[in-house]
Write a structure and sequence with these properties.
This protein is α/β, with parallel strands linked by helices. It is built from 5 helices and 7 strands; from the N terminus they run E-H-E-H-E-H-E-E-E-E-H-H. Strand 1, helix 1 and strand 2 form a beta-alpha-beta unit.
Length: about 210
Amino acid sequence: MELVLASKNPKKLVELDTILSQLGVQVCFEAQAGVDVEVEETGTTFEENSLLKAKAVMKASGLPAIADDSGLCVDCLGGAPGVYSARYGGEGLDDTGRYRLLLENMKGQMPRTAKFVSVITCCFPNGDVISARGECSGTIAFAPMGEGGFGYDPVFFLPELKKTFAQLTAQEKNAISHRGKALAAFREKLEEYLRLPGKTRESTYET
């Protein structure tokens, strides 16, 4: 089975493909499926935005499409940047600019507790939907550490490991991250789905 990833982020593709390839599922970019879809993320939750993206790419490609909507929720900022994590500070900022803005906005703020959230949604042409959510709790470091990962990884600190996401290997991160947990739950649901006769089901799977 081939799933089209509703994202142009190559690092997300690697993370999803690494885990789902164990099921014999291949994940490809939109361009490889001959489509280029820009989805306006108008949802107010990770679930809504993940569904919007997966459904749009599925309709455009005619193939099953998978989307991840994820973000960082910081307690002292009232859950911000949340669903706006990738757009925090406006279109002109890159990953480094966004986490620097976050650190600036958190000066003098306590507590520094936060969580990463990921919602994985897969939409099939027959109308079926599989969805799973994962969360990872941590704190926001006072300065970036590490060269790996992407997004806010250099400032998301895991007290129990004494490392940021950016200091972990890909294997270590996948084992505990929000996306790793969401994908683990998604994988179980996909395995069950693929065992169904004709690989179809009238109802939807949701967490």
